[in-house]
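Researcher: I need the complex structure. Ligand is flavin mononucleotide. Inputs:
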Amino acid sequence: MSQRRQLILNLFIYPGGHHEAAWRFRDAAYKQVLDIGFYQALARRAEAEKMDAVFFADGPALADDVRYAQRFRLEPLTWLSAIAAATSRIGLIGTASTSYMEPYNLARLYASLDHLSHGRAGWNIVTTSAPQAAQNFGLPEHPPHAERYARAREFVDVVTQLWDSWEDDAVINDPASGIFADTDRIHPIDHVGQYFRVGGPLNLPRSPQGRPVYVQAGSSEDGRAFAARYAEAIFTAHQTVESAKAFYADIRQQVRGFGRDPDHVKILPGISPFIGSTQAEADRLQEEFNDLIQPGYSLAQLRQFTGLDLAGHDLDGPFPRHLIEIGGPRGLASRFQLVLDIVDRERPTIRQLVQRLAGARGHWVIAGPPEKIADAIQAWFEGGAADGFNVMPPWLPGGVHAFTDHVLPLLRKRGLARLDYSGATLRDHYGLPRPRSVFAAAGAGGTST
Ligand SMILES: Cc1cc2nc3c(=O)[nH]c(=O)nc-3n(C[C@H](O)[C@H](O)[C@H](O)COP(=O)(O)O)c2cc1C
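Model: Output:
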């Protein structure tokens, strides 16, 4: 009997919590925001609850207004290595940019994490939406959206070849014969492309998963095509089950178009739950957070999404839809569309809109008792809208505890969430195959898949 389909649940840890004012909340651990022990404890908690992975976002620039929010960036691989040392089964996913890194360095970083963690690494592939990053890498301006994706395609092809450049059985490691590696099974990649020239091979053996898991998070047209070609897991933001279902169906169709198995591409929207014992209590909790927001910060966020600077506008007046330029900022193409959909659907005031986005930057925010949250998760999961979720706690650590103490037990009771890990690697947790080296496949006249 085939095993029942179960939810993939990642813990998306954002310093300070996902709500933009979380650090000011009466119960927030705001003093521990740079304390690795604090994050190790959160990761151990997620592991004890058999969640699939922890995820750490990144951007190589100080993009947000840190005057009002704990929005700085610890470097993900450094952070994940410390988490790897404190855990043994939970997956470790971190962001790295194809626009502001070199393939050889990135290939080494993630392959090393995969070795050190015995096969738990995942790479969230982003092209970086923050234009401010360009000035940190000697570029006159941030590359255009389409070009960023063109570079990203070549980047991933090069990294894949580097991860495959040692065949799985290249390491002999035999002191008696004095042979460490079979160098016939270690291959240069000799890549010459539009953006990169990379000789290879990589300078370390093939990692436990063969290749760390390919995660991707863009939802624009370019982003979707890129995801359908390369991603094994897709992070996405949706406000409604309808929009999530449409995205889900579109991606699976595009994946088939590339000759790939859609069951090997996991689609994971974000969910940020405000949990209370009653609806009223949950609403009060969310209100308490929204009362802490600071318009200076929220309007800066809104400008990143819409390109509009609304400083000086009446916050309780209607959002000035007529000021929006069609096509809008291309930095976060899909998020721009998401905000536009909220405005057209709900005609909010400026304050209502920034409160909507304050929760989780456009991701699904839901408030209610545990049963309501579990029902909603089950409806998206069984309704063709998701294979699981990035759980985005509004604040830390309480938002994590509320989800693991009150919602996860309900999901387990319904058979929707795992009772225990059945494997050791992130690929095992996600139900993904381990890819063969393209060189081994070529040598054997087969394909790598
Ligand atoms: C769950 C999730 C996590 C993301 N994490 C990052 C991140 O860590 N760094 C980043 O630059 N962008 C991140 N993004 C943004 C995407 O990479 C991308 O820029 C955005 O979705 C817009 O892509 P698009 O222009 O293809 O629509 C994330 C998006 C989602 C949905």
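Model: Summary of the prediction. The CA atoms of residues 193 and 223 lie 21 Å apart.
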